[in-house]
Design goal:
2 copies of one chain form a homodimer. Chain A is 20% helix and 36% strand. With 217 residues, chain A is an alpha/beta fold. In chain A, helix 5 links the parallel strand 5 and strand 6. Chain A is globular, with a radius of gyration of 18 Å. Chains A, B: It comes from Ligilactobacillus ceti DSM 22408.
Chain lengths: 217, 217
């Protein structure tokens, strides 16, 4: 099964025509905080809503509580973001989930975006690392642990970036505009502005976590 | 001396009233690529312009070359972003620089933003780590190496975040809404949504690099 998670980032950074095309996105929806309120407004009933809803009014919270089969209002939430809390419930309620597309996780506050990027490094979320996808108007972000991979070029994206989030060993980029041969990285770095040369692209590495971004201007 | 660097990120993410108030920002300006073209349009003559200017037309490039005392057009630029290239020239031409405010380094392409965040970890830019400041509409970002520090609350910002970009030892947050006592972190993490309790805030750590973000919704 596939799930979609809407968190509370700025609407202006959501993918182009997101609201008008939301019904066509496959899979059930989960709303984190303000994301749950927005999903209801846009005609989507989340299967799960999680958050302290401190930015919503009473009517909105009541609507979320009534509409969602499972609504976790005002959870005990120390040291965890709304996104992480929603993912924690997703892991608990849908252990068989195959893919989680995350929307609304970027834009405006960069401390929140970085929390939404670095959460994959927490041992608690290791089961999700290869399954989550962060999508906004200009970027599609996926995460990889050591291994050999083939990427498929997204039609609307021009650039490709390999971003070690930890120390990484023996990164090899085989068939991109800029290639690499078993290079080590000791600290986080963004190898940005690379490009596909064909429809697919191959890379491999031995140790660490890499985030791959396909993006456009 | 202080310098300001404008790089080519989206104008919509620049600080509020940036263009109308740009003349009041103290210090000389450096323009990276499209940033140099914009500075000229906004009535600022950069002391230094660097970039391959692949997004500018001939007239714009000629204007930059004519207006700037030092214009580095089409430099040899492998494995380095426009921001990094500009900072490399800043280090070379202004070794005595005390502060570099960077604008236009955020928004839209997240691989570019992450390159503009992680560059401080490259040994080449170590001399700048405590001197650069990345500023946009919602965030002010500074970088710290091991030590004891006092932060001053920015009037317009509500949130405070401590973001280890590397493994960090013994992070202590003394007088924030959420405190910590000598905690270690093994990988990058964003400790977001903390807040000042007074006008200043104190923190210390033993090893690693931390980025501190003051932000607002």
């Amino acid at each position: 099964m596939e799930l979609n998670l809407l968190v509370g980032g700025p609407v202006s950074d959501l993918p182009v025509d997101f609201i008008s095309k939301i019904q066509a996105i496959p899979g059930d929806w989960v709303g984190a905080d303000r994301g749950a309120v927005r999903l209801l407004k846009w005609g989507i009933k989340p299967v799960l809503a999680v958050g302290d809803f401190d930015s919503a009014n009473e009517t909105e919270v009541a609507a979320v509580a009534q509409a969602c089969p499972k609504a976790v209002i005002n959870p005990d939430k120390v040291d965890v973001t709304d996104t992480e809390l929603a993912l924690r419930y997703i892991l608990k309620e849908y252990p068989q989930v195959r893919k989680v597309r995350i929307f609304g996780a970027t834009g405006a506050r960069l401390d929140q975006f970085l929390a939404n990027l670095f959460f994959v490094l927490k041992p608690e979320f290791a089961p999700l690392i290869n399954k989550v996808e962060i999508i906004d108007k200009w970027n599609q972000i996926q995460f990889y642990t050591a291994g050999e991979y083939e990427l498929e070029k997204m039609a609307q994206m021009q650039y490709l970036a390999f971003i070690p989030l930890t120390a990484v060993q023996e990164l090899t980029l085989k068939d991109q505009k800029y290639t690499l041969e078993r290079q080590d990285f000791a600290y986080p770095i963004s190898l940005s502005s690379n490009e596909f040369v064909g429809q697919t692209s191959h890379f491999s590495f031995k140790k660490g976590v890499i985030c791959v971004v396909q993006s456009r201007d």
